[in-house]
Design goal:
3-stranded mixed β-sheet, two-stranded antiparallel ribbon, 4 helices
């Protein structure tokens, strides 16, 4: 009886080979590459050659390959990559001028393409206090740090009319394009009227 059980167990452990062997080449499906109809196919434009939004669509990768960032990036990301390849910082990411303290007559300029911009003040000399975040807007472009008195001014560099703004689609319920509440007053409103 012991022999019957051990023979049965050995038979279960043995690798069973299939009767019909299938070659691996028959299991792959071959596909032919479809011709690309894109006008940008195979072309990578230089930064200077970009004229409109259609130029910011990448050519994509060749069939069967993994695309690089340059091949697959579109829109603003592609614009930034092409600019960096040419040595141009398209979003002006350098830090603000910390070599001096901004005054009302000579403020630190902060460029912005949007209606509102946040900037952090760490004091003068740099890192003399914790970061205090200041909010500048197109309506109120000048802000002063309450800790050290550093003055920052927003320089709007964006488009004069934004086609994506809610007001351009007839949603302007307030008549002036702004909210209906009065902005809170701060110390600057009481010190100098021209500061506002």
């Amino acid at each position: 009886m012991f022999l019957q059980r051990s023979a049965f167990a050995a038979a279960r452990r043995a690798a069973v080979s299939p009767i019909i062997k299938r070659s691996i080449t028959n299991s792959f499906v071959r596909r032919e590459a479809a011709p690309t109809s894109s006008s940008n196919a195979g072309k990578i434009k230089k930064f200077e050659e970009i004229k409109d939004e259609t130029d910011l669509i990448g050519p994509g990768a060749a069939v069967g390959t993994v695309p690089t960032d340059l091949e697959q990036a579109t829109g603003l990301e592609r614009f930034e990559i092409l600019g960096k390849m040419q040595g141009i910082d398209v979003f002006d990411m350098k830090p603000l001028d910390a070599s001096r303290k901004g005054t009302l007559e000579n403020p630190i300029i902060v460029k912005s393409a949007g209606d509102e911009q946040y900037a952090g003040c760490t004091g003068y000399p740099a890192d003399s206090h914790v970061t205090i975040w200041l909010t500048m807007s197109r309506d109120r472009p000048i802000e002063r740090c309450p800790e050290c008195g550093n003055v920052l001014k927003m320089d709007y560099v964006g488009p004069t009319e934004d086609p994506h703004a809610h007001d351009s689609h007839g949603h302007d319920a307030h008549g002036d394009g702004h909210h209906n509440y009065e902005e809170p007053k701060n110390f600057a409103d009481f010190v100098r009227p021209e500061y506002r």
